[in-house]
Amino acid sequence: TPSALEFMREALEKITEEELTAIVAELRFKSQRVQHMFAPKTLLEFDESKFRALLRSIFSTRRRAAQVMALIEADNFRDAAGGLLHGTAPLSERFDTFVARLEPLDLSTRCDLAGECLHYWDFERYWLWTRWMWDPERNTGSLPLVTIQEYDLQGETPGLTYLKVGEAMAFVNGVGEAAGFQHGGRGLLGTDVYLACVYVVYLYTVTR
């Protein structure tokens, strides 16, 4: 908790409470767009323009939308996302199936896309996992900075790793609500913004 509070103190020297609240509001709006895009009634309307819009709203694919679309067709992504969000298999299995269907994209991008779709489809039920939160290949990210060193974030498959990231997110979210370092909004969206602040402080410290 002291480490987590120190990260937020440093972040608040660069960003205001009002700006943090505005970011959380934008994330809620992003969630509304994703919910409409992948609702069962509108999922069949998913086409290249919607695929491009989705990719442009995701940090890791924003500047690479054309490259991703050259490798993955919109209808293939639609079917993969439909199984991920509306399937009945256990979550880790749905995650792994989604990741497998998006080859030949690199694994980090596939996991980012899965985490984004799940989280913004239902941010109260599913959590975000992006490489800036936890990158298994480089053992870096904001989550290890605010969890105890013994916390294991590595799973045998991407789906099992997603579950372990979820445990860490629940821990950070719970501590944040108790300690009051969730600025801009409570719940997982507030935790998302907090972890983004942590990573920015980390990057600033390293590059400085």
Protein architecture, described:
The protein is mainly alpha-helical and 208 residues long. 62% of the residues lie in helices and 0% in strands. It is built from 9 helices and no strands. The protein has helices spanning 2-11, 17-38, 48-56, 65-71, 74-86, 91-101, 107-121, 158-179, 188-207. Helix 2 crosses helix 7 (107-121) and helix 5 packs antiparallel against helix 6 (91-101). The protein is globular, with a radius of gyration of 17 Å. The model has no long low-confidence stretch (mean pLDDT 91).
Q: Which stretches are poorly predicted, pLDDT < 50 over at least 5 residues? A: none
**What is the residue-mean pLDDT, rounded to a whole number?**
91
SSE run: HHHHHHHHH
Radius of gyration using CA atoms only: 17 Å
Strand content: under 5%
- Give a short account of the largest sheet: none
Helix fraction? 55-70%
Class per helix and strand makeup? mainly alpha
Tell how many strands the DSSP assignment holds: 0
Instruction: Please report the distance between the alpha carbons of the first and last residues.
Output: 25 Å
Note the overall shape.
Answer: globular
Discrete helix count: 9
List keywords for this structure.
globular; mainly alpha; 208 residues; 9 helices; 0% strand; single chain
